[in-house]
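Final report, Chapter 2: Outcomes

The project's central promise was a pipeline that accepts a single protein chain and returns its three-dimensional structure in a standardized token representation, suitable for archiving and comparison. That pipeline is now operational. To close this chapter, we reproduce one record exactly as it appears in the project archive, with the input sequence first and the structure output second.
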Amino acid sequence: MAVVGYMGENSSDGIVFTVSDQVVRTLRNFKWSGSARYAVHNRHNYHALTEYTGMDPDKITFDLQLLVEHGVDPMEEIKKLWKYEREGTAVALTIGTHGYGKYRWNIVDFDVSVKYTDRRGDIAGADVSVTLQEYLRS
């Protein structure tokens, strides 16, 4: 099994991004963005002045495809995301050998699109879009 990365305190309790002949749980459409804040000071009959006032928290978005036939229980993974979001848990994000961000990340949004269910109505395939926001220590 090749562990591509994980989101959580460690790979044993979090969401593990992995590829093997039995399990596929990988990121798609990974996007990391940041932005700066500027104040604009208007001046009478002259050009406005801009002032750098700091950085906004970085954001990361990515998609997960959760399929039973790829060895994943979609509902279990969705429950982990739900719990991290609802409890405000700040989680580490590691992909490959690189830890992202200066400290941790909060899940500020996730969106589940159910592709199909099994005969009992349980989710058997879903696409999940996740939005993380950087969480810094004070």
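Archive annotation: DSSP finds one helix and eleven strands in the chain.
This record, like all others produced under the grant, will remain available to the consortium after the project formally closes.
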